[in-house]
Amino acid sequence: MGLEQRPVSTLHERASFDVADFEVPTGREEEWRFTPLRRLRGLHNGTAEAHGKVIAEAVAAAGATVETVGREDPRLGRSFVPADRVSAQAWASFAQATIVTVPKETELTEPVVLRLRGEDASAASFGHTAVVLEPFARATVVLEHRGAATYADNVEFVVGDGASLSVIGLQDWDDDTVHVSYQHARLGRDARFVSHNVTLGGDLVRISPSVVYDGPGGDAELYGVYFADGGQHLEHRLFVDHDRPRCRSRVDYRGALQDADAHAVWIGDVVIRAEAEGTDTYELNRNLVLTDGTRVDSVPNLEILTGEVVGAGHASASGRLDDEHLFYLQARGITADEARRMVVRGFLGQLVERIEVPEVRAKVEEAIEAELDR
Amino acid sequence: MATLEIRDLHVSVGDGAEGAKEILRGVDLTIRAGETHAIMGPNGSGKSTLAYAISGHPKYTVTSGSVTLDGEDVLAMSVDERARAGLFLAMQYPVEVPGVSVSNFLRSAVTAVRGEAPKLRDFAKEMKGAMDALSIDPAFAQRSLNEGFSGGEKKRHEILQLEMLKPKIAVLDETDSGLDVDALKVVSEGVNRFSAGGETGILLITHYTRILRYVKPDFVHVFAGGRVVAAGGPELADVLENEGYEKYVKAGASA
């Protein structure tokens, strides 16, 4: 498949399955300028050797099928085209893929849990996952990432007409992990998609969730919580492509940062194309800076090519813990340390409490406590 | 019996290019358990600074003088230590704390001040009772602290905290401002319940005499220019009601 040009918008105009269609990034490109390429261990320039080990294990729910398939399976790669070199590299390099299918009109009562466990960060691994909801199906899928890895992957979420998919991605990697991931959601007519990304562990984690609509009435909510400690690079690059009428999108990502060289990057790209009349979109990123020495890059981009929208907006705010909050809590006898914890917990908790799977929510709360103990 | 003693208190604000500005210029006050003191004064007289300085807000610097609670040096304590020692400040503008629920906040505060966590059931019952007494909808327990509350709702929650934390000495900073008459009555009843046992003292800071119809002061102090310029009994409030602050402002400025 050759290079496709979408000259209408300046955002995300390149797409190809062929690695060679993308130049090796130098770090000056818009999409790579915040990422420390030297820490990518060759995932971006073809030098990564693909003999690492990331083991996928699935806990299937009644009503859903989970299959491990070869790369020739025709159901793969139908919902997206890679938009950068690492995505194309992951597509070119994976050996096996996992496909989760929820048949038409099937409503799962339990979540499907996919556990990916890295066993070796010294060599690269490439993965591919597809979650397919047929029309009017309902499901929750949990993607857990743990262990040590140098890992790049594409994840496809195909949400059929009238279907509803909730996805929770938990990035709780070991300290030496590099993970570059692309989450491609494609929503059918009146489909609903809710995504949570919780990114806590890893040396460098770069996640690019994207949403495209196949029909009118699609509804996407993308939430993210991250906690960057000293030396960690946690990057989230959102892209919502409104090219159908009357679709809705909401983005709310929040992060906390502490200690030297903790770096958080958030990019929120939204395009409303000329044909996407009646679009309703809002994106928000907030960062809470807990100590000196951290860095936040937060860049919302909204490109509107039609005047007929219901709503289109974005906001980004990064700041220190509010002294007035701390004073108020302390004036009620609460110690400074506990006051700080309460404010951070509250700030991130407003998103965590939206996670619908109680066990996962408890795990996330526990992991945030562990971050606060550091 | 609890006693808060403030002696020759001088407080400044700011340390930037314009230098520190002295707001309090020698305040002397003694508040004993069982007493209600009203501090009245015009805008900018330093009333709120006094409240913040007593509770230890980092913006204010005590340059000289002393504050003791039962002989203990309050100024040497951190903000939270002061609260645990038995001081309480009902804020004029309570801040909104997103994501921290009223019940979670109250339980944390009660645990800190009492030194042990109350049993969940006992606490829930106590909180419900205290909220009922202040006509606060129980649904507020699950809402984010002060977030989206009206002015009156915020003030009710300040008094809710007062009644649950049971401090020795409470400083109420313009708790009456922005309240309609019904809310003022509800809030005043809460303050009177708090002081009914006679074991607690109140320092009530206000601009208006209106609240003094519901919360009866034993002493009234007129504040101007960063210090107390006149003191008397409840009758002084009536004088202020009729004559205003004008002559005291002059007295404060010339001091």
From TrEMBL, chain A:
Q: Which GO biological process annotations does it have? A: iron-sulfur cluster assembly
User: Mind telling me which SUPFAM superfamilies this protein's record contains?
Assistant: Stabilizer of iron transporter SufD
Q: Which residues form the SUF system FeS cluster assembly SufBD core domain?
A: 120-347
Where on the tree of life does the source sit, at the highest rank?
Bacteria
What InterPro entries does UniProt report for this protein, alphabetically?
Answer: Fe-S_cluster_assembly_SufBD, SUF_FeS_clus_asmbl_SufBD_core, SUF_FeS_clus_asmbl_SufBD_sf, SUF_FeS_clus_asmbl_SufD
The record's annotation in Pfam families points to: SUFBD_core (PF01458)
Q: Which family does it belong to?
A: Belongs to the iron-sulfur cluster assembly SufBD family.
What is the protein name stated in its UniProt record? Answer: Fe-S cluster assembly protein SufD
Source species: Actinomadura rayongensis
The primary gene name is: sufD
UniProtKB/TrEMBL annotation, chain B:
Which residue spans adopt a coiled-coil conformation according to this UniProt entry? none
Domain (ABC transporter): give its ranges. 4-249
* Keyword flag Chloroplast: no
Question: Quick check: keyword ATP-binding in the entry?
Answer: yes
Pfam families per record = ABC_tran (PF00005)
Q: Which gene encodes it?
A: sufC
Q: Which organism is it from?
A: Actinomadura rayongensis
Q: Which InterPro entries match?
A: AAA+_ATPase, ABC_transporter-like_ATP-bd, FeS-cluster_ATPase_SufC, P-loop_NTPase
Q: Which family does it belong to?
A: Belongs to the ABC transporter superfamily. Ycf16 family.
Which residue windows are transmembrane per the record? none
Task: Offer an example of a GO molecular function term for this protein.
Answer: ATP hydrolysis activity
Name the record gives this protein: Fe-S cluster assembly ATPase SufC
In terms of Gene3D superfamilies, this protein maps to: P-loop containing nucleotide triphosphate hydrolases
- Alphabetical UniProt keywords: ATP-binding, Nucleotide-binding
